Amino acid sequence: MTIEQISLLRNVGQFDNASSGAQVPLTPFSVIYAENGRGKTTLSAILKSLASGDPSLIQNRKRLKAKHEPHVIIQLSGAPAIFREGAWSATQPEIHVFDDAFVAENVCSGIEIETSHRQNLHELILGAQGVALSRALQGHVERIEHHNKDLRAKQEAIPAAARGPFNVDAFCGLSQNKEIGKEIEESERRLAAAKAAGAIHQRAAFQALNLPGFDLDRIRDLLSRSLPDLEAGAAARVRDHLRKLGRGGESWVAEGMPRIEAASTGLDHRSCPFCAQDLAGSTLIPHYQAYFSEAYTQLKEDIRTLGQGVAADHDGEVMAGFERSVRDASETRDFWKAFTPIPDIQIDTAAVVRAWTAAREGVLEILRAKAASPLEPLQLPDQAAEAVAAFEAQRRSVAEASDNFLACNEAIKTVKEQAASADISALEGDLVRLKAIKARFLPDVAAKCDEYLKEKAEKARTEAARTKAREALDNYRETIFPAYEVSINDYLVKFNAGFRLGSVTSVNNRGGSAANYHVVINNENVPLTAGAGPSFRTTLSAGDRNTLALAFFFSSLEQAGNLADKILVIDDPMTSLDEHRSLTTMEVMRELYDQVRQIIVLSHSKPFLCDLWASADKNGRSSARIARGNPGSTIIAWDVSADAVTEHDRRHKLVRDYLHSADHTKEREVAAALRHILESYMRVACPAYCPPERLLGNFLIECEQKLGGQDEILSEANVKELKQLLAYANRFHHDTNPAWQTVSINDAELVGYAERTLNFCSRN
Fold first, then answer.
1. Which residues contact residue 282 at a Cβ distance below 8 angstroms, ignoring those fewer than 6 apart?
2. Fewest CB atoms less than 10 Å from the CB: which of 240, 453, 513, 756?
3. Dist CA 314 CA 380 (whole Å)
4. Is 572 left (phi over 0), alpha (psi -120 to 50) or beta?
5. What is the pLDDT of residues 698-746, one digit of tens each?
6. Residues 650-664: pLDDT tens digits?
7. Domain boundaries, the chain
8. Could you tell me which CATH number the domain at 1-94+566-644 has?
9. Residue 86 zone, left/alpha/beta (φ > 0; ψ -120 to 50; rest)
């Protein structure tokens, strides 16, 4: 596909409504001439926009004061490409433009090389394939930057207070612990114990809780006891008698029986200690003796002892002491439960005391009844037995609680030992860590951690892709950069640059990849950045920098391959170039002409374009001109042949036409041309003796001086002829004859001198 016509340029740059380009065809080799300021740069920017699709290249050149937006139509082979409403209908990516913008983007801005230049040059060197690899890498790098940004945001969303001593990665990577609640409680207790080490050292452990029991077997046995030697009838008669004596009668009798012996001393019979009568006839005395025997006394003593024991073991002080013990145990539990697990045991002391009191009273009541009738066998009443059973149930409950409390004493011992040697700082750290583990899996925090871990995993995948992309790019660069260095130095040799590039390499930086190189002059490396010594800005002239840019441009085309599909647009390549580099530049473009699909060259230099035109294939060349229109600029056809004729050629033609046509209106113009023809000829025939700055008269004087010598310049005949011709021609030149415009002219004389001048300048 080629560019066939510039059909319409409206409201852009100098072009108001230029449609005349539709009548000017563009062929595989096209030259476009324009004076500076006519619109060359605008046309280059339009074609560059057509290549890239970047609308800003056109929109930024919108014609001043234009009411409507830019409108461009470029006729491509096959279909037009239309730019309207800020967009192209189609693009042509195979268009490659060399212009000032190329230099500014890829080489330097003025005399400075900035990071952006080396980054753009990097893409230029890589070409389409390498750029795709580089952009793929840069895309991964940018995505990693986005990941980092998102990770920072998601990291900040995780409460710092929840993380405790962990950084975000460690916090989110924690494993869930189902026993964390218990571990936190244990840690809190250990920390509390460490802080209360002094109080713990002073505090006692649990003491046993004891309730006295009721020996029912002993009570029942005592209640059932009597005197086996005392007949029941006799005992009944004694009891009946004692009842008659009233309250305290038995005691009175029991106390009196031992006194019989004392009252009978000295008598031959047993005498009553109360009435001194002989007791031999009393039927009760033998029964009294059996009744109030030692066994009987012992029985009563046993009853009294048991009753006193029950009363003492279960009296109010004992009950109050029990209640105090329970309170102490409760206080002990309240103290130690902050440092070690203590069972929550409730003892209802009121219920215990009620059951206890009921059992005590029931037992004492039956014992009092037994004491009143020691010889009478009794049974423990059911009510008393039930009361004792209820108390025993309470007693077992208290005993179980006591055992549970006492079982904690070993743990309390451990707490004491740990508290004595505890490191409070370490324990606080452990507690914070455990709380962080718990917080990690709270629903809200867990969701934020999951988001962070997901983002982190995505970043890891992107980093793996970045590594793979970098390896692919590095492998490609290892091939392309050395080849590019060779290619660009070949072009610099062709351009007679006088310098070359060294160490053309690729470097990676945070902003992306960039090309690095240094200039080599006289085998000395010159750095790109300015320093104390020579640098790029101080060693390369404007022509050198433009030459380097051309070398970059042509090398990139060569390395990219597929030249046959490319369209080259070259805008004023001769800027700041010396004459010898201009010639080599034309040679390079002539070589490319046979390799690419189309070349379009724009310039303000007619000689340069004319020379290109002359060397191009006549069947494949075309020419155009950006000329002043009304208003702005327009594109018209350009007659290169007319502008290719030099002044020397025109003067020759003028003289020849005069000799053939005898146009007397041209006489004075022909006469004035004769001296210029002679000067031009001698400059070419004798360049060493007749340089441009030397007058032809002075040249003749030197020729006369050297006649006949070994360094003779012209023969005597030629000197004579030149002198005569110059004498005639000087009559019509302003330097030698102020009145040259009024000198009369004789046609025959002019014809003769004209013929002689042409003949003289045709000599070998």
1. 272
2. 240
3. 18
4. left
5. 889 999 999 988 889 999 999 999 999 999 998 888 777 787 778 888 9
6. 888 889 999 988 888
7. 1-94+566-644, 206-226+295-407, 230-292, 646-760
8. 3.40.50.300
9. left
